[in-house]
Structure formats: C-alpha cells, structure tokens
Specification:
The chain is an alpha/beta fold and 182 residues long. It is built from six helices and six strands. It has one domain: Rossmann fold. GO terms for molecular function: GTP binding.
Amino acid sequence: MSCFHKTKMVSEQLSELRIVLIGRVGAGKTGLMKTILRSSKDYKEPDSESHLCVCSNTEKCHKEKVEIDNQEVVVVDTPGLCHSKKTDQEVMEEVKRCVSLASPGPHAFLIVLDEFKFTVELQNMVELIWKTFGKNAAKYALVVFTHKYELLDQSELGKADEIIKHKIKENSQLQQFVSECE
C-alpha cells in the first residue's frame, strides 16, 4: 500500500485523529482499515464471525477506535461506490452518515484506489465526492493505492513507491487528482 501527498507538519497533538475511508467497491478500504487498526499494540483481531472482514463489501458504516503511539485514532469504513445494486447517490447518503461517526468532523479522507487508470468511473467517483463534501475536502484528502501485488510485477515490489510515482506521472488526469489532494 502506498500513499502520496504533500507533507504538512502538525504542530499540536490532537486529542483524537479521525480518518474516513472512501473508495469504490473492492478497492481495499476494509483491508486498509484492518492494517491501520493492527498498528495498535492493543488491537485484538476480531473472531471469524466478526462483521469486519477483509473480504467485506461494506454495506453500512463501520467505526473503530484504537490507540497508536499514544494517539487516539478513529477509523470509519464506508460502503463502496460504483456498487452494482445501489446508485452512487444512495451510497453517498450512507457515506455522509458515516462522516457523522467522525464527529465533529474528519481530519482526513483517505481515498482508496486499486488501479492507476483514471477511468470515467473513477472520474465520476471523484466528482461525486467533491460534490458531496465540497471541493475544500481535497485539503483533507490523501490518495492511498492498495493491491500493490496485483498492480506491480514481482520484480517491481522492492521499488514500489518509485514505480507508483512514475505511473502517476504517466497519467495526467490521475496526476492532477493526486495533486489536488493536499
């Protein structure tokens, strides 16, 4: 998994860091959530009957809170966009409800992508996110690429960050989107 953004230093410690994961169905939002949660030494892996599953196609919001390096972290998983049984507008209504779980508001939107192509579907998804939360949401957005084992050849894995940066530069629309996210 790789994340590209402009680095800004936060000078004050937040009482809690609130993160909302947004992306299309199957992009890896739930897997990313589990990766973040596992960063906590106190996190207990849910049993097999848990509603939090890596293979999950999240239908409803799911919120978890953990402590990572003395920092409270709230992670909210949202239903996937580009859903086969629901319109994106229906899904975004649930996503808006999810954002309320990060009250008083999220510090970061992690926009989860599992491909380097800036397809019409991805463009529509991005436009819907900005329309729903306002273009100002880009100031709080980070792009996270998941599924690197599927995206890269075995020989490329050791240089994943470098190769991902190159693939972003190859696609002007993707590059513009990533640069919009501060």
